[in-house]
């Protein structure tokens, strides 16, 4: 029913209902993304590193299965299949067309400063330009688009190379290593017409054996285009960096010493006389040996020469080993003569004696011929010169703080002294005598017997218990 004319009808105000609408909240990425390299050559095969890092102050947790990081728009970089490398567990990589998705089988927390690197291999497009790779993250229910990652595709062709090592001796090879941007193959001059792989590769070469330097030119080829670089290899003369023998002075017969040496750039190294069965030694090393085995009879010294052969060689260095002089410590009877044993057993000792030292114990006189550094030398018993025929200590060893009596028998002697101390000694008409000593420690006593210009010595070691 409509209202009567002229009658105002009061109406209730109608309350407006707010319109329902959904507002997409823009999310900032929780992680930071980058890619290396950022510049590549057209047509090259490259290994790319996609780096994810937490640059914020709070930890970020990537949840299992539901969360992911997607690297897309790879079609701007390559028109072939991308080959992702297996990431560290529990990360997974899924390739779908030209899109790579990274996710986890179990949750992973990236603390502030933590990062993870994913790698994939791609054949770069053959036309220059800039690939703008897209990054999308879904973390903890929040979706965000990260800034695009540009990769410049350049129409470049270059090669860098080096030698390892850069200096060698004669008959030694070196390794040439190179890395190219772009290119189909690499050639090396001087050398054959062999074509080597572009990219990262290496080969062994032997430099010119008659020149101090060989300059190798490595050239990368791409169609009619090429780029090159030079690598210099030095051919070095042999060198002896060090040569030592320890000890090298006042050596005793049968004493072992250590030889050590360091050489460089040699084709072979020899030692003369040999340290062992062979004269050849390694470029560097050390060896214990007995030098007296090569010492000539009665020689005081022996030179050892190391020789290094090689380019413009050989080179040599010589060390001389010096031996302590040989001496006859004593030649005497083991005890005093008796009626039953008028000629007691003979004893002798020679310091630094070499093979060839001999005693003629039959006949008169009894004679010792000693061979050794500074020799030969002789001594006699029952001869015509001065002799110390017997020298004994009693007691022996001597108790600590006690005395001992040294008894002796001399022949053809006019003066007699005891060392140490240069003590004058006496003897009867038969040559018998004695003296008392009190050694504080083991001591070598020496009788010095003289007759005119002739002198002999006889040593006795007296120990203290």
Structure characteristics:
six-stranded mixed β-sheet, Immunoglobulin-like, 465 residues, mainly beta, disordered N terminus, elongated
Q: Mind explaining what this structure looks like?
A:
- The radius of gyration is 48 Å and the shape is elongated.
- It has 465 residues and is mainly β.
- It has four domains: 32-154, Uncharacterised protein YcnI-like PF07987, DUF1775 (Immunoglobulin-like, Sandwich); 158-235, Immunoglobulin-like (Sandwich); 239-322, Immunoglobulin-like (Sandwich); 327-462, Immunoglobulin-like (Sandwich).
- 0% of the residues lie in helices and 53% in strands.
List the helices and strands and how they pair.
Layout: E1 32-36, E2 39-41, E3 45-53, E4 60-62, E5 68-72, E6 83-84, E7 91-96, E8 99-104, E9 108-110, E10 115-123, E11 129-139, E12 142-154, E13 158-164, E14 167-168, E15 174-181, E16 185-189, E17 196-197, E18 200-205, E19 213-222, E20 225-235, E21 239-246, E22 257-264, E23 268-272, E24 280-281, E25 284-289, E26 301-309, E27 315-322, E28 327-333, E29 346-351, E30 358-360, E31 366-370, E32 377-381, E33 387-394, E34 404-411, E35 415-419, E36 423-424, E37 432-437, E38 443-451, E39 454-462
Parallel strand pairs: 2-12, 14-20
Antiparallel strand pairs: 1-3, 3-10, 4-9, 5-8, 5-11, 6-10, 7-8, 11-12, 13-15, 15-18, 16-17, 16-19, 19-20, 21-22, 22-25, 23-24, 23-26, 26-27, 28-29, 30-31, 31-32, 33-34, 34-37, 35-36, 35-38, 38-39
Q: Quick one: biggest sheet?
A: 6 strands, mixed
Within CATH, the superfamily of the largest domain carries the name Immunoglobulins
End-to-end Cα distance: 148 Å
CATH topology of the largest domain: Immunoglobulin-like
Alpha-beta content class: mainly beta
CATH architecture of the largest domain: Sandwich
Numbering strands along the chain, what is their spatial order in the largest sheet? 2-12-11-5-8-7
Which class of the largest domain in CATH terms? Mainly Beta
Helix amount: under 10%
Tally of alpha and pi helices: 0
Total beta-strand segments:
39
Q: In oligomeric terms, what are we looking at? A: single chain
Which residue ranges are poorly predicted, with pLDDT under 50 across at least 5 consecutive positions? 1-26
What percent of residues are in strands? Answer: over 45%
Radius of gyration: 48 Å
Envelope shape:
elongated
Total domain count = 4
- Average pLDDT works out at 92
């Amino acid at each position: 029913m409509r209202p009567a004319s002229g009658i105002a009808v009061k109406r209730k105000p109608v309350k407006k209902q707010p319109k329902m609408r959904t507002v997409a909240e823009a999310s900032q990425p929780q992680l930071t993304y980058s890619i290396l390299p950022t510049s590549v050559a057209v047509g090259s095969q490259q290994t790319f590193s996609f780096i994810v890092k937490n640059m914020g102050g709070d930890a970020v947790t990537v949840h299992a299965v539901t969360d992911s990081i997607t690297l897309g728009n790879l079609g701007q970089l390559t028109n072939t299949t991308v080959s992702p490398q297996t990431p560290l567990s529990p990360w997974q990589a899924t390739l779908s067309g030209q899109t790579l998705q990274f996710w986890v089988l179990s949750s992973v927390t990236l603390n502030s400063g933590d990062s993870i690197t994913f790698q994939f291999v791609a054949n770069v497009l053959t036309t220059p330009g800039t690939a703008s790779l897209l990054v999308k993250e879904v973390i903890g229910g929040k979706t965000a688009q990260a800034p695009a990652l540009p990769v410049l595709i350049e129409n470049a062709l270059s090669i860098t190379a080096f030698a390892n090592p850069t200096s060698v001796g004669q008959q030694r090879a070196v390794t040439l290593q190179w890395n190219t941007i772009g290119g189909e193959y690499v050639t090396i001059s001087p050398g054959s017409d062999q074509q080597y792989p572009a990219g990262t590769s290496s080969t062994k070469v032997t430099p010119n054996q008659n020149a101090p330097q060989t300059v190798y030119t490595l050239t990368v080829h791409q169609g009619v285009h090429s780029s090159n670089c030079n690598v210099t290899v030095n051919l070095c003369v042999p060198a002896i960096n060090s040569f030592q023998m320890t000890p090298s002075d006042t050596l005793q017969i049968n004493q072992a010493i250590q030889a050590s040496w360091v050489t460089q750039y040699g084709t072979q190294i020899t030692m003369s006389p040999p340290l062992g069965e062979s004269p050849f030694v390694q470029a560097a090393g050390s060896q214990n040996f007995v030098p007296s085995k090569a010492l000539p009879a009665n020689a005081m010294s022996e030179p050892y020469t190391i020789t290094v052969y090689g380019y413009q060689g050989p080179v040599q260095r010589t060390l001389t080993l010096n031996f302590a002089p040989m001496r006859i410590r004593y030649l005497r009877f083991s005890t005093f003569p008796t009626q039953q044993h008028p000629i007691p057993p003979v004893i002798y000792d020679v310091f630094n004696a070499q093979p060839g030292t001999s005693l003629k114990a039959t006949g008169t006189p009894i004679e010792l011929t000693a061979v050794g550094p500074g020799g030969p030398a002789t001594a006699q018993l029952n001869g015509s010169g001065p002799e110390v025929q017997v020298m004994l200590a009693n007691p022996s060893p001597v108790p600590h703080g006690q005395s001992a009596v040294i008894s002796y028998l001399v022949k053809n002697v006019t003066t007699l002294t005891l060392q140490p101390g240069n003590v004058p000694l006496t003897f009867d008409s038969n040559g018998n005598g004695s003296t008392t000593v009190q050694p504080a420690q083991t001591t070598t006593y020496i009788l010095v017997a003289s007759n005119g210009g002739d002198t002999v010595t006889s040593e006795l070691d007296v120990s203290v218990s």
